[in-house]
Structure prediction request, 245 residues.
Amino acid sequence: MSKAITRRVKRQLKRVVQPAVRRLGPASELPTEPLSTRWGTDRGTPIDQHYLRRFMERHRADITGAVLEIKDRRYTASLGRDVARADVLDIDASNSKANIIADLAAADGVPPDSYDCFVLTETLQYIYDLEAAISHAHRILKPGGVLLATVPCVSPLDQELREAECWRLTRNSFARLLGDAFGDGAVEVETYGNYASCTAWLTGMALEEFDADLLEEVSEVYVQGICARARKALPETGGSRADER
Ligand SMILES: C[S@@+](CC[C@H](N)C(=O)[O-])C[C@H]1O[C@@H](n2cnc3c(N)ncnc32)[C@H](O)[C@@H]1O
Prediction:
């Protein structure tokens, strides 16, 4: 190789490779601790709230009538319309906001056909018997009632509840589990997140610290979480189903 070519190759390497290495940093300089171990709540709004809120806002028309939510009335209170009943279910008997203490996977005490809407956010990952939990979710909805459910995918375990965490689902497994209970045609599943949002989420950045434009791309590989809407079928009447959304 002539000296001139060697110089050109060296120049190119410097121009292309060095900035990339500088950007990533040597392994010894990569952060070993997250910015926050509390989903960024100690720095601002957790990044997943951006996506969950937007999903719930899009489906706010479903949050009506008799509504059941887990842990508290967060979405029922802020987005519900014409809410006739707002129940809260939790397995945690110390939760004073819950008026139904039950394991969703064994919720036989909750009467069938009770709710127009069940807001089931960020809970299924704690339940070992997912089929039973989803079957009860379906059973306690009224015919035509809607389940709005979300689960994490690329996400750290919860600091406080980590011993209880069982699962990370994919779009495929979530859609199949819901489809088995509600029927495939009754389930809409979508994912959110991308490489940038997953990285920010894992490191504990808050929503306010993150460039909002970077949240919008939806990656099929770097899936931060999954949202689903499933509707319980109306009884067969032989008539029109035009009233189904
Ligand atoms: C991380 S919180 C999420 C709930 C809240 N709706 C939200 O979106 O932030 C999970 C809740 O699920 C409850 N939980 C865990 N396992 C459960 C089960 N088998 N049945 C009912 N609730 C359960 C926990 O006690 C906790 O209140």
Remarks:
- Residues 70-71, 89-92, 103-105, 121-123, 126-127, 158 surround S-adenosylmethionine (CB under 6 Å).
